[in-house]
């Protein structure tokens, strides 16, 4: 059972393409403005890898992101945030950070369709912990709004992948 002060939002979409293609398309962050048109929950993402020198980093492609790299995410809802990449595997990409009364893990899962038809079951998820997590509980005031944003983002991603 999850802790009392936590919530998970998960929105699923089936995309007519294999998981590797969906993952590569999503992680090509330079292409994001070309296909993310409806909800625009994420305006831009870049991945920064610390170089070892104070306050210096290099930009790396999303597909090459590693745990510990910094994601610079610009969204209309949260402004600019700088979460840490938590994982980048063939089946999952995610980052984590805190702010606005939450600790958040945001991730996408690229799962083979259970029908074995070469399609992808995309899971777009965000896990919240902290004192304000109740706002995202099943009947919380933010949950439906966030689910709608994720659905719009997923539909844009689906259209982009299937049209490429």
TrEMBL record:
InterPro entries: Polyketide_cyclase/dehydratase (IPR019587), START-like_dom_sf (IPR023393)
Name of the molecule in the record: Polyketide cyclase/dehydrase
Source taxonomy: Eukaryota, Fungi, Dikarya, Ascomycota, Pezizomycotina
Domain of life: Eukaryota
Pfam families, alphabetized: Polyketide_cyc2
């Amino acid at each position: 059972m999850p802790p009392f002060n936590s919530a998970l939002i998960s929105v699923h979409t089936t995309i007519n393409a294999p998981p590797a293609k969906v993952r590569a398309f999503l992680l090509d962050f330079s292409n994001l403005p070309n296909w993310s048109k409806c909800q625009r929950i994420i305006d831009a993402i870049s991945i920064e890898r610390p170089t070892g020198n104070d306050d210096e980093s290099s930009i790396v492609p999303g597909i090459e992101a590693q745990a510990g790299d910094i994601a610079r995410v610009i969204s209309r809802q949260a402004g600019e945030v700088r979460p840490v990449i938590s994982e980048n595997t063939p089946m999952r990409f995610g980052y984590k950070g805190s702010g606005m009364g939450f600790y958040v893990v945001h991730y996408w899962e690229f799962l083979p369709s259970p029908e074995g038809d070469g399609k992808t079951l995309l899971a777009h998820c965000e896990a919240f912990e902290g004192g304000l997590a109740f706002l995202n509980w099943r009947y919380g005031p933010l949950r439906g709004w966030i689910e709608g944003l994720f659905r719009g983002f997923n539909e844009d991603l689906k259209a982009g992948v299937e049209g490429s």
